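2024-03-11 09:14:02 DEBUG pipeline.ingest accepted 1 chain
2024-03-11 09:14:02 DEBUG pipeline.ingest length=203
2024-03-11 09:14:03 DEBUG pipeline.predict start
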Amino acid sequence: MEIMMFQLGAYQTNCYVLCDETQKICAVIDPGDSGEALGAKIVELGYDVKAILLTHGHHDHTGGVEALHKAFPEAPIYLHPKDGREATTAMRSIVPELSVETVDYSEGDTVTVEPFAFAVLETPGHTPGSVVLQCGELLFTGDTLFAGSCGRTDFPGSNHKDMMASLARLYPLDGQVLSGHMGQSTMERERQSNPYLRQAMKG
């Protein structure tokens, strides 16, 4: 397995590409807003995208979906319905409606792209449809949990109480934290030093 990370767009959104070097296939998590360039790079490296997984619907994470899907039209696009077809009108300013078909996923679902299996954990707060994707010891936390911080809750559709509940849910997990912005971390490190995670456990 190889994990490639690209920081894309004005907000330096972290896009992750999990590659199986034997089969030359990959899964893309949050293609940012640079789908055409990302697709060209993946083609250059000789990989075929088998799935596009979105941790939430904000435009800096989904803006590149259409262009990437154009390059790999057979790859399904997964998005929680609360950030997709069920998103409120108030949210649409920062959660744009995608012009390509998406597949709903939610709590308890698993998306398999052999040899990878992504378990879906619902973690609302930053958006109603935010999810964390757990793949073995890897936690793709989107904008729910950052190294030393957490996602904003002052956007349309955000909810601070839900964020605290989601962070409390993540607290006991172990593994590497691969977030939607900033650097990487581990759950052990975040339990020790992340003030938002610690606040969440105080209730």
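2024-03-11 09:14:41 DEBUG pipeline.report Residues 147 and 183 are 6 Å apart (CA to CA).
2024-03-11 09:14:41 DEBUG pipeline.predict end
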